[in-house]
């Protein structure tokens, strides 16, 4: 029997995606392995050694400090979520204000444009030393998530269809009713888009920030500790964990974004 | 509400009494009640909307555009007036000024003797591009104005349901806007405006975005809806055919700045026959005149 690929069949499409992903993964592992053999340095362990270290990490935790993997992950996630919620709490009202009031926006733009290009991680040493090791990483995450979130929300408010505002006015809506019933719902997909982008950047920030914050622990701390001790497979195991968690975070954000866009009927 | 059986004007004959229950429902809301009481002494056929010497000037960096000038028009209660004129002459501007969405540079717009200041639910509007809220279902779109007015939930859904039925969308009341065709979207637009019992409904090329066939269906349906609810309508269109098919009077505008060129009374009872000899003749005469207006200078 000859198999014929039908691109309109969703099972065929799924099988194809699965196959391609598998092949991509095999290529990745092969190249990694070859590289570790060719380079022949302990700094590049082969995949098998990494998996060993990973299993070890999952079962026994950090053998230096006796802290479990779960504790590290929880610590990283807590910092991450705190930073994210803080960014949302500040960016949402600020974005709505900046999108609504032209003069305010013009006033804020020069400041924002100066701050935006600064890599969030550049703030890490300052936050750690000037504030403290507990809140420092959270503030780095905050900075990382804040800007994409703010930009998207402001943009979303400005993009609102003026006809919808007119329609609401002719239906008797007051300014505050327009805000609640027209402006807010129509910016939701933009907020979600900002969250999606922000979460990706925020996740990069948390790991980087933890490198500077030994007392806080977290998966970034474990990575630094293992590398410093010269136990490379452990460092790579940490990277695998970081990648998986990052994938989960962006996956969840992507799902929420698509769900919200569909609910609101506006594509971004 | 007034009954108008004594009104001698033939052109209003096709309209029956307004839907009684819908008006009872409106009367429960104090805001609406006050308004309806106030305008209740205006009988069908009496002047409802009075526009005097309307002038609208847009300022840009380089120049001033006089969009509307010396525009004077009285609209009677229960009347359907069409406005036609060359493209860009200022038709939309006139409607937006009546709706309160732009402030006139000069002149006055009065409804029931009261000067209009800013937008209000006494002047409903139906837009060419529908302007429906995409995050709301059909039912929720229709309920928007009643939500704004603070009408209780049961009454809201009951009234919305009735108007959704009136425009023939009962099967789609829980559909989202993007699932509807253009014709269906505009029927939601009509229900959303009419359900609030506006004193005047302003329609800006409401069927302009629809194909010819859907357009004819919508025109017939609009007339059917008007038989069941009492409405005063100002209807902007590019189509002479549409204007003659629907209206009691057709206002022809000049090129920009929009002034009234001529007002034509359309004498025939509805429903009208497009292939009727008089209809065809009149359409041709108006088209010729519009063309002249377009060619002149
Ligand atoms: N906000 C505005 N600022 C500046 N000029 C405007 C504005 N709105 C409309 N105009 C101008 O006023 C004139 C009348 O516009 P309007 O939209 O009322 O015309 P219209 O008769 O509705 O045209 P159409 O038949 O194409 O719909 C046009 O020349 C237009 O460019
Ligand atoms: Mg127009």
Rg of chain A (CA only) = 23 Å
Overall helicity of chain A: over 70%
Number of domains of chain A: 2
Largest sheet of chain B: 6 strands, mixed
The CATH superfamily of the largest domain in chain A is: MetI-like
Report the helical percentage of chain B: 25-40%
What is the ordering of alpha helices and beta strands of chain A?
HHHHHHHHHH
CATH class of the largest domain in chain A: Mainly Alpha
**Which overall shape of chain A is indicated by the principal axes computed on the Cα atoms?**
flat
Q: List low-confidence stretches of chain B.
A: 1-38
What structural class should be given to the helix and strand makeup of chain B?
alpha/beta
Report Rg of chain B: 19 Å
Give the strand tally of chain A.
0
Question: CATH topology of the largest domain in chain A, anyone?
Answer: MetI-like fold
Structure, explained:
The complex is a heterodimer of chains A (268) and B (297). Chain A is mainly α. Chain A is 78% helix and 0% strand. Chain A has ten helices and no strands. In chain A, α2 (47-60) packs across α10 (232-264), α3 runs antiparallel to α8 (175-211) and α5 (124-131) crosses α6 (136-158). The longest helix of chain B is centred in the C-terminal third of the chain and has 19 residues, at 277-295. Classes of the chains: A mainly alpha (268), B alpha/beta (297). At the A-B interface, α7 and α8 of A face β6 and α4 of B. The complex binds adenosine-5'-triphosphate and magnesium ion. Magnesium ion binds next to α3 of chain B.
Short synopsis of the structure:
The complex is a heterodimer of chains A (268) and B (297). Helix content of chain A is 78%, strand content 0%.
């Amino acid at each position: 029997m000859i198999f014929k690929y039908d691109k309109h069949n969703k099972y065929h499409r799924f099988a194809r995606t699965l196959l391609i992903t598998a092949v991509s993964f095999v290529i990745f592992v092969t190249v990694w392995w070859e590289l570790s053999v060719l380079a022949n340095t302990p700094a590049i362990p082969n995949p098998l050694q990494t998996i060993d270290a990973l299993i070890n990490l999952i079962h026994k935790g950090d053998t230096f400090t006796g802290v479990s993997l779960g504790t590290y992950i929880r610590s990283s996630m807590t910092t991450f979520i705190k930073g994210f919620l803080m960014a949302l709490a500040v960016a949402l009202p600020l974005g709505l204000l900046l999108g609504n009031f032209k003069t305010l926006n013009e006033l804020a733009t020069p400041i924002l444009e100066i701050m935006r290009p600064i890599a969030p991680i550049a703030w890490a040493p300052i936050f750690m030393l000037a504030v403290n090791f507990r809140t420092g990483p959270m503030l780095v995450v905050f900075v990382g998530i804040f800007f994409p979130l703010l930009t998207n929300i402001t943009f979303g408010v400005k993009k609102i269809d003026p006809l919808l505002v007119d329609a609401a006015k002719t239906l008797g809506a007051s300014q505050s009713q327009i805000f609640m019933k027209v402006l807010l719902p129509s910016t939701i997909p933009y907020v979600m888009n900002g969250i999606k982008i922000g979460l990706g950047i925020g996740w990069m920030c948390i790991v980087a920030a933890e490198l500077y914050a030994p007392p806080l622990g977290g998966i970034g701390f474990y990575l630094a500790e293992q590398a410093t001790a010269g136990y490379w497979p452990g460092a790579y195991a940490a990277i695998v964990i970081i990648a998986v968690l990052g994938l989960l975070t962006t996956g969840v954000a992507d799902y929420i974004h698509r769900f919200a866009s569909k609910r609101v009927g506006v594509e971004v | 509400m007034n009954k108008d059986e004594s009104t001698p004007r033939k052109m209003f004959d096709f309209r029956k009494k307004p839907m009684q229950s819908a008006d009872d429902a409106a009367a429960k809301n104090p805001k609406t009640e006050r308004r309806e009481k106030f305008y209740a002494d205006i009988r069908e056929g009496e002047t409802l909307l009075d526009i005097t010497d309307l002038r609208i000037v847009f300022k840009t960096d380089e120049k001033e555009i006089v969009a509307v000038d010396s525009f004077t028009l009285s609209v009677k209660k229960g009347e359907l007036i069409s406005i036609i004129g060359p493209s860009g002459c200022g038709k939309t501007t006139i409607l937006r000024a009546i709706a309160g969405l732009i402030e006139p540079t000069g002149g006055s717009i009065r409804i029931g003797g009261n000067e209009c200041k800013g937008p209000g639910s006494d002047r409903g509007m139906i837009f060419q591009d529908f302007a429906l809220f995409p995050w709301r279902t059909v039912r929720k779109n229709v309920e928007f104005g009643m939500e704004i007015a603070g009408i209780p939930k049961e009454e809201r859904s009951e009234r919305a349901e009735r108007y959704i039925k009136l425009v023939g969308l009962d099967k789609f009341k829980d559909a989202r806007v993007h699932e509807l065709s253009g014709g269906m979207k505009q029927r939601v637009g009509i229900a959303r405006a009419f359900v609030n019992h506006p004193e005047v409904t302003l329609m800006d090329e409401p069927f302009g975005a629809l194909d010819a066939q859907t357009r004819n269906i919508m025109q017939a349906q609009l007339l059917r809806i008007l038989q069941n609810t009492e409405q005063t309508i100002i209807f902007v269109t590019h189509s002479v055919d549409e204007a003659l098919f629907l209206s009691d009077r057709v206002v022809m505008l000049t090129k920009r700045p929009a002034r009234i060129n001529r007002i034509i009374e359309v004498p025939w009872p509805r429903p009208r026959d497009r292939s009727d000899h008089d209809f065809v003749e009149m359409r041709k005469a108006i088209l010729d005149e519009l063309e002249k207006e377009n060619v002149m200078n």
